[in-house]
Amino acid sequence: MCDQADIVYFSARKVSSSRGGAICTNKKELYDKMRDLVPLFEDFLTYGGISIREIETLAVYKQRPCRRIQVHRGASGA
Q1: pLDDT for 38-57, tens place per residue?
Q2: Strand (E) positions, 1-78?
Q3: Which residues contact 6 (CB under 8 A, 6 or more apart)?
Q4: Rounded to the nearest 5°, which phi and psi values hold at 21?
Q5: SS3 (DSSP) at 26
Q6: Is 8 exposed, middle or buried (0-12, 13-18, 19+ CB in 10 A)?
């Protein structure tokens, strides 16, 4: 699934974390453009300042098979 996209971005709040997320790309030029912006918005480039417990939670969700992804915004789901 991720091979079809230039950038994959997700918020860890959608998987029961209080903060964090990830930006994934295989394109070096996109990585280089975003690298200097990450500390302005997220804290550290490597782990974003999230706790070890939250990193472990993300690792568990990463290992689970993905059947269907739904992202809802607000109570209406719109």
Answers
A1: 766 666 666 666 677 777 77
A2: 8-11, 21-24
A3: 25, 27, 30
A4: 160, -165
A5: coil
A6: middle
